[in-house]
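re: ur question from yesterday

yeah so i grabbed the chain u mentioned. its 414 aa long if i counted rite. heres the sequnce exactly as i have it in my notes:
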Amino acid sequence: MSWDYSFNTFFKNFKRESKIISEDNMTLIEAYIQKKQLQKAVSVIKNALKNIESASLNIAVTGETGTGKSTFINALRGVGQEEEGAAATGVVETTMRRIAYPHPKLPNVTIWDLPGIGSTNFRPESYLTEMKFNEYDFFIIISSTRFKENDAQLAKAIEMMGMNFYFVRTKIDNDLDNEQKSKPKTFNKEKVLMKIRDDCSEHLQVALFCEPPVFLVSNFHMSDYDFPKLETKLLEDLPAHKRHIFLLSLQSLTEATINFKRDSLKQKVFLEALITGTLATFPLVGMIMDDVENLDETFNLYRSCFGLDDASLENYAKDFNMSVNDFKVHLRFPHLFAEDNGESLENKLSKYIKHISSVTGGPFATVIYFERAYYLQNLFIDAAANDAIALLNNKGLFEKEEGPYISMPLNNWE
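ran it thru and got these structure tokens back, copy pasting raw so excuse formatting
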């Protein structure tokens, strides 16, 4: 088995929106591998990882007062409305300056609250200059009714400057509730949503001479309506090296998001293993707890990524009216590295590698192994992701499970 086979086999089935390495870099690495120039391939991988790890993300959110802009910003950051550092909601906009809201867990991610262009005296071009448009990765333009001429003109100016923008229509749940109360006999949810979307699109189309997509969102139920579609669209449009940090910044609100995170983390671990392990033979013998201790900080990062950090687990336990320790009994990751029914970590890892072998067709597990840290990290990522999905679905979490430690699908590669 060659580097070429390993690299291509690993990356070929990941969806584009979760890939953290650009197509150009992929092509370059593959070319070097085919020419047996492995050091040059490693150099490209090192530079790609450096860009991924140092990537920053700046999101500009703009909209008029009362559109739910601050609530949307708090939801993006995973911050409650009453928590310290939350964007103030329900207040009249009195400042013409932008306000930075850093992500609570990722210092390289900042969401910028920009005053609505309708509340300023700026023309779209001068507005963007005043708001330092070149510092953002993309703009989100928010409205809670129909988008106005100012919104469309701002979008046109953003587009002329070669940047991406997205129209988000908030307070959808309020609209649906009001419609159902006023027309209980004829209420049809899908028809109401279509009417709202068409109304927004028609007004934008007049000003923009095109029909941009409009994402219908509830700030209090972010997994519903169009927010998952917005996430996917943003991932598709972002440069590959920024997808990883954007995924880590997202709350684990849908199974698709959790699987995207899983894929992103596994790609990063794979690239790191190519550099440090260089496909070294790994017989499964001997104690491996030293590896676990060395990776403890990394595992805590993965827990945080999937919403399984200590603070989040405390909140989950309160929701289920349980102590944290009692709640943890029903999760996989806290007990992953402990002996379970006499089964050692070596045996669990061996089963896991055999499972990986069956899923991938065996290119990694049957002939050549990475260093142990590679498989330990993947084992933990899968356990944490599966716990996050179980919590999300509230299915089978408190049912006694039999059989192998890994019971859910290990990856979303199909």
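noticed a couple things. The mean pLDDT is 82. also Strands lie at 57-63, 99-102, 109-115, 138-143, 164-169, 214-216.
anyway ttyl
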